[in-house]
């Protein structure tokens, strides 16, 4: 029984330290955003990003979609917590029926309304220009 309690304490301790709250507030971050959180977005370079669901829950799979002009490719993509620190989650976008998609999910945190940011780095193959786009969304429970 003592080992079980220590294991449970260790698990709760690691969960709380892994889910450290960021000093960033959602409002401050979204004030500089190009798009509205959780809604489809078209950036100035014609990259489109949207989610498979309008409302997302933690530990539930969802898909992030992107439609890129033919001269652009995805160089890198990752999810970062804005209102909490949970590290980052690398995204693997694959082309399927002309659209790029990444099947993913995020973990649960003690914060019930978590703001996440997709950091999508794209490269223009004709000019070699690299741009990083930021798409935000909430995950709630």
Short structural description:
By secondary structure, the chain is an alpha+beta fold.
Which properties best describe this structure?
5-stranded antiparallel beta sheet; 16% helix; 141 residues
Number of helices: 2
Tell me what portion of residues adopts beta-strand conformation: 35-45%
| Class per helix and strand makeup | alpha+beta
Element-level helix/strand string: HHEEEEEEEEE
Tally of strands: 9
Strand order, largest beta sheet: 1-2-3-7-6
Rg calculated over all Cα atoms: 17 Å
**Major beta-sheet overview:** 5 strands, antiparallel
Low-confidence stretches: 4-17
Mean pLDDT, to the nearest integer, reads 85
Please state the oligomeric state of the protein chains shown. single chain
The percentage helix is 10-25%
Shape: globular
Measured distance between first and last alpha carbons = 32 Å
Verbal overview:
It comes from Pseudoalteromonas arctica. Keywords: Signal. Residues 1-17 form the signal peptide. This is Lipoprotein. This protein has a five-stranded antiparallel beta sheet with strand order 1-2-3-7-6, with no helix packed on it. Strands 5-4-8-9 form a four-stranded antiparallel beta sheet, with no helix packed on it. It has helices at 2-18, 26-31; strands at residues 41-42, 48-51, 62-67, 72-81, 88-90, 94-96, 99-104, 113-124, 130-140. Residues 4-17 have low confidence and may be disordered. With 141 residues, it is of the alpha+beta class. It is globular. Helix content is 16%, strand content 40%. The longest helix has 17 residues, at 2-18. 18% of the residues are buried.
């Amino acid at each position: 029984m003592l080992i079980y309690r220590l294991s449970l304490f260790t698990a709760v301790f690691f969960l709380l330290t892994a889910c450290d709250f960021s000093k960033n507030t959602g409002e401050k971050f979204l004030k500089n955003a190009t798009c509205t959180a959780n809604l489809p977005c078209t950036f100035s370079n014609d990259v489109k990003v949207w989610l498979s669901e309008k409302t997302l829950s933690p530990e539930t799979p969802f898909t992030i979609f992107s439609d890129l002009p033919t001269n652009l490719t995805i160089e890198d993509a990752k999810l970062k917590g804005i209102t909490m620190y949970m590290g980052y989650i690398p995204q693997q976008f694959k082309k399927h029926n002309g659209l790029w998609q990444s099947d993913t999910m995020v973990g649960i945190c003690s914060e019930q309304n978590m703001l996440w940011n997709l950091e999508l780095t794209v490269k223009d193959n004709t000019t070699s220009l690299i741009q990083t786009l930021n798409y935000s969304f909430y995950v709630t429970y």
